[in-house]
Amino acid sequence: MRAQVAAHPNTPADLLGQLAAEFPAEVLSNPALPLLRLAHPNLLKDWPDAALLALLKLPSAPDWLRYHAAKSSPVEVQVALATHPHLTPAEITQLAQHPAWLVRARIAARTDLTAELLDTLAHDPDYGVRLAVASRQDLPAQSVETLRRDPSRFVRQVLEQTQRARLTAFLLMLCLFPA
Fold first, then answer.
1. Domain match, 61 and 95 both
2. Looking at the chain, which terminus has fewer C-beta neighbours within 10 angstroms, N or C?
3. Mean pLDDT, rounded, for 45-52
4. Where is average pLDDT lowest: 21-25, 63-67, 109-113?
5. Contact (CB, 8 A) for 116 and 143
6. Is residue 173 pLDDT above 80, yes or no?
7. Which of these three, 73, 106, 123, is where a domain ends?
């Protein structure tokens, strides 16, 4: 019944905000939502963070929602945004420069980064971001060399373990599927 209320076009905006955490797909598909956004440009600012987090978890989260999350939401929402599977290259670049290290670390963990952006993140001032980069098995050689000289021993250890696991996986594949 509550899901039907979330999808109903006569549901008030504040109630949609309350229902979005539990029924995000229904709220996004509500036919009145575009009109509510026009009538109330700051509509999402009045909604609870849990609603925005639930909406951002949907792969179908629209551009306007991601734009709002990037511009005016708490860090927790921006961390969730950084993990969204359909970010544009511009959104990724913007979030890679975010002041909160956790947002940059979530960007560093994405599989769709360019070698240039990985190298930039490998030089990040926060070791947590460099740690996220070091834990990737698909690092370009330039980033590997940068992280081998990292001032944090922990980052260097994670890089070594990740590179060793990558080599082990490669050798295993050679044994299982000889040429």
1. no
2. C
3. 92
4. 63-67
5. no
6. no
7. 73
